[in-house]
């Protein structure tokens, strides 16, 4: 048999050595995997959640600040937020809930809406083990917390101030719209107020929620002012929503009517700026900090995600903002707590588990 030359044998040994060196190191027959870094190993079980925020309407600075609060709190818990807006269309809102369920979100936040439109979708979410928490919505499903702002109390606060300023005798214009759960609750207090104060009379009422609510309200208020052109014809405007108040205030200012005062519900930075203008007709409002509302709603949703069982009804404590309490320099809602007791920075909804999550 012919012998293999020495150089050829050496070459074969060299190739075999190289091939062995290129094989992956193995343990128990499996390739070794790089160790997971310590931070992901210790990730909190509530971290990295995907949250859907489904809104009936996204209008004005109140909504903007509310969304800001939601996103801020979710981010502090290590999650992400996707906002679904419905342009006031309840059918689209119901469709958005279905979409959030089908896309497998970890939790759903709802802003406004009626039970007729939303209950079925919310029930579907619960069946799919997706927790839901609503704000100012007519949702009526067991196990779904609904936050409200103490709407009747806010109405009473502003109406009582109107009564005080007018010595119990006034002609008022009401700006209000049906079909929204908080508006319906505010209307209850309004009706009771008129019954208890027969010398305070409603001379006109209107209101519609549109994509340009403040502008449309302004046009309607201008028409009302032409109907009642004399001093004393209208003593005050009671606006059940700050978007209504904005339109009314602009109409009154443009008409040069210094005899009419405006009382409202809800508060935003834009509202506060208008209230602080010299000789502004907008003298008072009752509200909960919209940024805080968003934060608190998120906390209750994370309680649900964590397997806890908060109450199905959560009432937020409103604050009365009187322009007489504000300083001469302009302030924003972030600074309002320095002048108005109880404003902002609420700890409502926090639990030890959520504080631990936020710290991580």
TrEMBL record:
Subcellular location per the Swiss-Prot or TrEMBL entry: Cell envelope
Keyword presence, Signal: yes
Location of the Periplasmic binding protein domain: 51-308
Keywords: Signal
Lineage: Bacteria, Bacillati, Bacillota, Bacilli, Bacillales
Main localization (coarse): other
Leader sequence residues: 1-26
KW tRNA processing (keyword) present: no
Family in the record: Belongs to the bacterial solute-binding protein 2 family.
Entries under Gene3D superfamilies matching the protein: 3.40.50.2300
The protein's name: Sugar ABC transporter substrate-binding protein
